């Protein structure tokens, strides 16, 4: 069995981004495990801007491979890229967000709508009489991502589906990613719970701690160092973990099963939603 299988891995640059670094750890783990079967990975990274993404798209379209692992961050551009890539008739696995209506493409990741729905349920458990909920959007230019919008949609849907949960009042605030200096006390006046639909819950937590504001529940996503710090301090109440390492591993595993073993594979792998609280967070062992 000397045939080589080239898999293109098309992801955002990960140097300073723990979430994407974890994806790479999972991908590398699969690469090592399957290398004896002739699997070779070729990486195409792009910066978090559309220009860089479009440059990378050209390279990926020109590159000859057997399978593609792709994280579609920029929605419109990714849809266009996939439409073009389909002409090559090469299997595609998407991780992190699923933007395709094409049943041929595989997806490994969370059900974003469901994860927002879960966040709504967690907030409803946590709240007794105080019902002021703030949805705090801390965005890069890229948060037109479908994941982000689906989470918010899922969050509201939970409350629509549970009419007995009356008197909940919702407000939304959007700030740009650069951070904490854009927050002010007025934003949190009368607020009892904050939902941050991405990995930046720590920015809200840091502000509340610095200003000694207590009794506000925060729910967010992803086990970033800063998020864990505020979870352990009791400032963040819940984090929904997307298990990025598992996503990366399963993405490569899917291509391996489909192309090397020629197995029939299910195209949608939803990673179970994991609710992390201070009491059930156990850090991974240091290698």
From TrEMBL:
Domain called Periplasmic binding protein: residue spans: 7-259
Gene Ontology molecular-function annotations: carbohydrate binding
Keywords assigned: Signal
Entry keyword Transferase: no
Cellular location(s): Cell envelope
GO cellular component, one term: cell envelope
One Pfam family hit: Peripla_BP_4
Homology family: Belongs to the bacterial solute-binding protein 2 family.
Protein name, UniProt field: Periplasmic binding protein domain-containing protein
Organism: Flavobacterium bizetiae
């Amino acid at each position: 069995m000397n045939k080589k299988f080239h898999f293109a891995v098309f992801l955002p640059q990960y140097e300073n981004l723990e979430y994407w670094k974890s994806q790479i750890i999972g991908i590398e783990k699969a690469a090592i495990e399957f290398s004896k079967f002739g699997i070779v990975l070729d990486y195409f990274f792009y910066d978090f801007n559309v220009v860089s993404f479009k440059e990378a798209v050209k390279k990926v379209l020109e590159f000859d491979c057997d399978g593609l692992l792709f994280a579609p961050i920029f929605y419109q551009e990714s849809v266009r890229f996939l439409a073009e890539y389909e002409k090559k008739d090469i299997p595609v696995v998407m991780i992190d967000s699923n933007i395709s209506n094409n049943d041929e493409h595989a997806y490994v990741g969370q059900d974003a709508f469901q994860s927002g729905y879960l966040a709504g349920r967690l907030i409803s458990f946590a709240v007794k009489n105080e019902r002021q909920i703030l949805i705090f959007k801390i965005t890069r230019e890229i948060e037109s991502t479908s994941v982000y919008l689906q989470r918010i949609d899922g969050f509201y849907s939970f409350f629509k589906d549970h009419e007995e949960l009356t008197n909940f009042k919702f407000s939304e605030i959007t700030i740009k990613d650069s951070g904490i200096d854009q927050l002010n006390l007025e934003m949190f006046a009368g607020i009892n719970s904050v939902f941050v639909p991405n990995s930046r819950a720590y920015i809200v937590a840091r502000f509340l701690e610095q200003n000694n504001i207590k009794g506000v529940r925060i729910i967010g996503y992803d086990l970033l160092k800063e998020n864990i710090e505020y979870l352990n301090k009791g400032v963040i109440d819940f984090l929904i973990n997307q298990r990025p390492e598992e996503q990366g591993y399963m993405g490569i595993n899917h291509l391996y099963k489909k192309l090397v073993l020629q197995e029939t594979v299910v195209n949608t792998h939803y990673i179970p939603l994991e609710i992390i609280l201070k009491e059930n967070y156990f850090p991974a062992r240091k290698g």
